[in-house]
């Protein structure tokens, strides 16, 4: 027989695998690893779905509280909610202010014994006053002694004439 030329390739011979682990164990480990990855991904997907479902339910509940005709997309719901909250705050402030006014009226009725508060106005003109400041101070002292509350005052001194306009709140009896 003739020797064949030597080749770079060797013929395949079935030899037993000599190594750390056998291929069957490697396949099992790979399958377990993939299964764990799939379990983690599946758990993450389930948690995320649950979170989105919860948020969608909250948006639906919020949408039901808004006026009829509000669009049902999330952005519209948020915008309308902000507007409604601002409107409710304004209403709350207005009602608080009215409540304080009513409480004061009730208190005045109880303490005042049939008195009510009215707005009054005094207009005065004094020709050639000796002391403008003294005149004004005298009028203000009279208002203070009558338990009136000053709301507006305007004064002028032109051509040796003093003029003043005074608005105030005062008590008057209910007849």
Going across the major beta sheet, what is the strand order?
1-3-2
Derived structural class: alpha+beta
- Please state the CA-atom Rg, rounded to the nearest Å: 46 Å
Tally of helical runs: 3
Bin the helical content.
Answer: 40-55%
What characterizes the major β-sheet? 3 strands, antiparallel
Number of strands: 3
- On the 0-100 scale, what is the average pLDDT? 76
> What best-fitting shape do the alpha-carbon axes yield?
rod-shaped
Low-confidence stretches: none
H-E string = HHEHEE
Beta-strand percentage range: 15-25%
* First-to-last CA distance: 146 Å
Q: What does this entry look like structurally?
A:
By secondary structure, the protein is α+β, with helices and mostly antiparallel strands. 55% of the residues lie in helices and 21% in strands. The protein contains 3 helices and 3 strands, in the order ααβαββ. It has a 3-stranded antiparallel β-sheet. A hairpin with a 2-residue loop joins β2 (149-158) and β3 (161-173). The longest helix is centred in the first third of the chain and has 43 residues, at 23-65. The termini are far apart.
